[in-house]
Amino acid sequence: MPSPTATLSTALALFLLLLTLTPSAAADTAAAIYSNATTGYVYLGCYNETTAIAGTSGDRALSGGTNEVKPGNMTVEMCLGFCATGATKYKYAGLEFARECWCAQQLSPLAKKQPDGECDLPCEGDKTELCGGSLKLTIYTVGAASSIRIAWTAGLVAVGAAALSMGLL
Ligand SMILES: *[C@@H]1O[C@H](CO)[C@@H](O)[C@H](O)[C@H]1NC(C)=O
Ligand SMILES: *[C@@H]1O[C@H](CO)[C@@H](O)[C@H](O)[C@H]1NC(C)=O
Ligand SMILES: *[C@@H]1O[C@H](CO)[C@@H](O)[C@H](O)[C@H]1NC(C)=O
């Protein structure tokens, strides 16, 4: 008969294992919104491209910055890296049409936030990540939220260490 403590730690171990397994299992089956706080960018949302809006002379949602198109190779990491390195670390980075990366210091007020599901194209360089849609952009911004998330993770690690030292795990 296992002791109650042994049973508790087995349950905890299984729970932690499930936590680590679930996201990767989901990523295998469908493209998901890429999120990595250490890139310095946080996900802002899915926005409309503005080129088709009357009276804007075809202005882009993210204009005045720089861009690159990588058929077959684009990933979110590639785009965030492209927008962050160079003379300017751009405030906004947007992925569009599975292969385009747009960097800018401002987001056009004409670009409206859409439901996340409107950005439905997997990146051509990594099918597990979402890279916008047709005339839709998956937009990231330089965010304070990244430091909050790091603090939260550090908090979890501290709780885990405390549990270990109390002999709970
Ligand atoms: C997260 O981003 C950092 C910085 O760009 C990178 O070094 C690291 O490999 C990334 N981690 C994952 C899991 O993608
Ligand atoms: C934005 O996208 C939605 C969904 O595709 C569309 O219905 C709407 O007309 C678009 N709005 C603009 C301003 O382009
Ligand atoms: C895509 O990556 C491959 C392999 O690294 C490279 O040969 C090719 O030139 C790249 N294509 C583009 C458009 O960058």
UniProtKB/TrEMBL annotation:
Keyword Phosphoprotein: no
Primary residence: membrane
Organism of provenance: Podospora appendiculata
Signal peptide range: 1-26
Source domain of life: Eukaryota
Cellular compartments per GO CC: plasma membrane
Alphabetic keyword roster: Glycoprotein, Membrane, Signal, Transmembrane, Transmembrane helix
Compartment(s) where it occurs, according to its Swiss-Prot or TrEMBL record: Membrane
InterPro entries named in the record: Kremen_rcpt, WSC_carb-bd
Protein name: WSC domain-containing protein
Topology versus the membrane: Single-pass membrane protein
UniProt cross-references to PROSITE patterns, sorted A to Z: WSC (PS51212)
Keyword set includes Transmembrane helix: yes
WSC domain location: 40-143
